[in-house]
Structures
1.
Amino acid sequence: MRVAIISDIHSNVEALKAVLDEIEQDNISIIVNLGDLVGYNANPKECVELVQERKIISILGNHDRAATELKYAEGFNILAYQALVWSAKTLTNGHKEFLNSLQHTKVLWDRYLLFHGVPENPDGYIFYFFQAKKVFNYMRKKTPGVRVAFFGHTHHRAVWQRDVRGKVSKVEISGDHLLLDAEQMYLINPGSVGQPRQKQWKASYLVFTNDPETIHFRSVAYDVNSAQNKIREAHLPEYLAERLESGL
Ligand SMILES: [Fe+2]
């Protein structure tokens, strides 16, 4: 089985379409979206509709939640907040109902945990060792039998592992693929489709194969100028257009 894992689309329909075009040619059975369909960029409606049309399995992101209830955007930085208020005005009630229906977590095939930030909270981060350790502990308690989880939110590709002794470490991603060890637990982030932040502008996602368990990181070029022009036409903050090009 081949599963495409995408995350943090953030209303960037150019990036989403480029990723979906590549996925279509790749014998993929299922597409999973780890949240933050909206926010930052200028095509929230189009991204929600594409995800609905393609029946992409989706998880609730912190921006999705804030678009349906603005009080959740109060902790956002000012640029994210301004874009979120604009998104909330642009989306119809139908789009918001869809976002509101999304769950914080899902378990795929009883084996793979999906969430946005951390399992209990789409605003939580896994950036540091102690945060990864906490989520591994959560999995051991709440989802026994699940060794592998996929998450988003940081917009950074990442793989954390926990070995049989309980030692947690960050895996150096050197190539574009990684074979998972059946004895270890993993937390895996595919990076962001619509606002990558790893100093490269291409849309990032991954393909997961379950037999043997392997992840393949992918980067896809898209029409970044078109996405930038739409941000400017919508009078969203200029930095949101600039950062797309530099991957910040
Ligand atoms: Fe995000």
2.
Amino acid sequence: MNPTKITFYMAPMSSATPVDSALRELDVPHETVRLDLKAGDQKKPEFLALNPNGKVPTMVIDGAPMHEALAIMHFLGDRFGVEKGLWPRAGTADHRTATSWSTWAYVTLPPMLMLFNVAGGPRSPAALHHPPLVDFALAELRQRFGALEAHLADRPFILGESYSLADLIVGSSLLWAQVCGAPISEFPRVQALTQRVGDRPAVRDAWQAT
Ligand SMILES: N[C@@H](CCC(=O)N[C@@H](CS)C(=O)NCC(=O)O)C(=O)O
């Protein structure tokens, strides 16, 4: 296969950080372009031409732009992860499990985390605080973490006995949930997965990169 030319548009400590972790874990050659979000680099016309949402992460792959962290990480898994044994081949049952749980981490979990943060988080304005909504979000989060706890009942990782990009994707959301104060510690297997992912050098280095 020809080398794939990748340009990664990112900002430190952002939605681009899990993608940065994935690039490090898979050792993918790429060029990095760091955006200054406070200065508004993401709203400049030349960047909006790549991603009309004006957000990071954005990736240009062989000249074609792509956005959304989850989609980008699925691409990285399919293109680079299979040959490294870190992502299952498309069409297999493991690939369906990997995409199910990674989509869960980016689609099913975040709305309740957002509600939990907005309705009671320390960085949310007091005018938006609403304790009954915090209780609702907590109950929903407990149900969702409970589902992952059940999946992990007989395996330490999303796909079984070994680490994969699916763990990195799910674990990145769990690490964020932990920072937000979500009740992960009530779920020992979820907590253990979060810890294992947080201990990966690729994940640690990406979160520490400034
Ligand atoms: N759903 C998007 C979220 C991207 C996102 O919200 N990125 C933020 C950084 S965490 C951003 O670029 N914000 C800049 C802005 O909104 O102006 C993804 O997962 O890629």
3.
Amino acid sequence: MSSILETKIAIVTGAARGIGLAIAEAYAEQGATVVLADIDAVAGEAAAAGIERGEFVACDVTDEAQVEALVAGTVERHGGLDVMVGNAGIATVSPIVSMSYEDWRRVLAVDLDGVFLCTKHAAGAMAASGGGSIVNIASIKAFGGAPATGSYGAAKAGVVSLTKTVAMEMRDHGVRANAICPGWVETDMVNDRKAELEAVLGLSFDDYIGHVQGGRLGTPAEIATLAVFLASDRSRFSSGSTYNVDMGATASLV
Ligand SMILES: NC(=O)c1ccc[n+]([C@@H]2O[C@H](COP(=O)([O-])OP(=O)(O)OC[C@H]3O[C@@H](n4cnc5c(N)ncnc54)[C@H](O)[C@@H]3O)[C@@H](O)[C@H]2O)c1
């Protein structure tokens, strides 16, 4: 694949690190202009500085005025919006029975409300200029229970549902929407929570990954490569779909 995103204008939320940063880098490598949006301005500015045709915009995806300004500013500076990646997310480790309501609401606010706001404003802007592609980052936890990540799984199931709905609603306006559902990927989100997860799971994280996912974490780049395809015109017949990238984790019954 060479330069398949030439002339595309893309926003990637949560792009200061991890999967979002890998997607921003992969988009730029394929010729796109990339707006990296994140709540972490220090890491976001540094990330954008290393990306050709990359720029940073501070944005908290839970704040509708900030999301609206992110989309409107991108359209104003670059003449349109072709791709929105709803990637910003947080996770907590807590069983349902001991989870505080505040904790539940915080995860839903970023992981589901944030994706709703970005999808809403991007879809409107894309429709106004002839179409585009929305790529939301959900998780395989949308499809089943996983211990101690109930708020996260519920939010991701919501992301899958809203992505399918907007795909249907916007089909006649040239706007496609798909969700990527990664398995376990090596980022700060996972590394920072390994000890908590081991305590809840009662086994080592390595043993757990060996069982569910063939023994290794995915890399952010392995998620980004699918995000490139879904942003590009090569996926023009794909909309309303979910794509698992999990080394068979969701295929296994054992
Ligand atoms: N790492 C995994 O195993 C994994 C698996 C499945 C899905 N995902 C999803 O992929 C996405 C990226 O995860 P990651 O592992 O790269 O996480 P990460 O923690 O490494 O990066 C997340 C980024 O989102 C930003 N962010 C958090 N709250 C924000 C807000 N309110 N507004 C704007 N930006 C905000 C953070 O500052 C950070 O830069 C998330 O949606 C996550 O749920 C991750």
4.
Amino acid sequence: MGVCDLVICSDGSKYKTIRFDKKLAKRKHYWEKRLARRRNQALKDIQYKKKFGLIDPKPLEQYSNYMKAKLMVAKYSEKIANQRKDYLHKITRKLVEDNDLIVIEDLKTKNLLGNHKLSRAIANQSWRVLRLMLEYKCEWYGKKLLIVNPFKTSQICSNCGYDDGKHELDIREWDCPSCGIHHDRDINASKNILNKGLEQALVK
Ligand SMILES: [Zn+2]
């Protein structure tokens, strides 16, 4: 699991964290701004009417401009959520169909410092959904899902097992000082995660 690439597989394939909802997010933001403004206007109006003795000012829910903005925000929120969900369904379906054993890292300990807050929040949310989808789809298809501790998986060479020490997050590629092989940080980590899972499966 990653932030820029949402899923990185041990066979080298990567699935991007797509912000394909950018256009929709813009529309949503447009309506959110309007919603806030219209809400304030309506509240002011209600206050004004109360102050001047109108016994029964109409409730907020009867301000049609406000309600329209509210509906638009809800509409765009739903569209964005649906697009994201569709994408995650596609990824997980492919993963489960193509593999008999899927090993993923336990993300509780994942170190994501240094990443942009928003992309981290999106990735976080997507990982949770991804894991859930993998869990039930593996069950449906009779496939095995293992979750392993990612400890040291981004520093050990998946080729020879040499422990090269901690790599800072900005080091995306490195050469193993022992066997000399060139590594993509994320793909190497995913190979290590697979190896951990295979070990676990054998011990059981
Ligand atoms: Zn090596």
